[in-house]
Design a protein that fits this description.
Blueprint lengths: L1 H18 L35 H14 L7 E5 L13 H11 L10 E5 L2
Parallel strand pairs: 1-2
């Protein structure tokens, strides 16, 4: 069941990016945030803060910047865990998101770099 939900969520996000559903660009319209991410190679970056303070908006800003830097949109997987079907999942299941992505995109495994952007986790 979990793999089916993950597959649907990944496909939904990729279809939105491919079809440019957000006003002709690869992300929804947003208000620019004057924040920078530290560049630490090979390390995960966490965006933390209180509810409703713009974390998701900031994430979309970062995605937009990466796309402007000519990073292929399919290499930026935005995955939002705010889905009732995913309630109760544990950190031990995070590998399922990665595996499902590569099951759907086998040509990316070990060939190209993919950035996994996990929201509401």
């Amino acid at each position: 069941m979990l793999n089916i939900v993950l597959r649907r969520r990944i496909n939904e996000r990729h279809n939105q990016a491919k079809n440019h559903r957000f006003s002709g660009c690869a992300h929804p319209p947003l208000t620019r945030r004057d924040i920078r991410l530290p560049a630490i190679s090979g390390k995960a970056t966490a965006v933390i803060g209180m509810r409703r303070t713009g974390k998701t908006t900031f994430i979309w800003q970062v995605i937009g910047q990466r796309v402007k830097q000519s990073i292929v949109r399919e290499a930026l997987l935005y995955f939002n865990f705010e889905d009732k079907r995913l309630a109760g999942q544990e950190a031990a299941n995070l590998h399922c998101v990665v595996e499902e992505y590569y099951r759907l995109n086998p040509d990316w495994r070990d060939q190209k770099r993919v950035v996994f952007i996990l929201d509401e986790i």
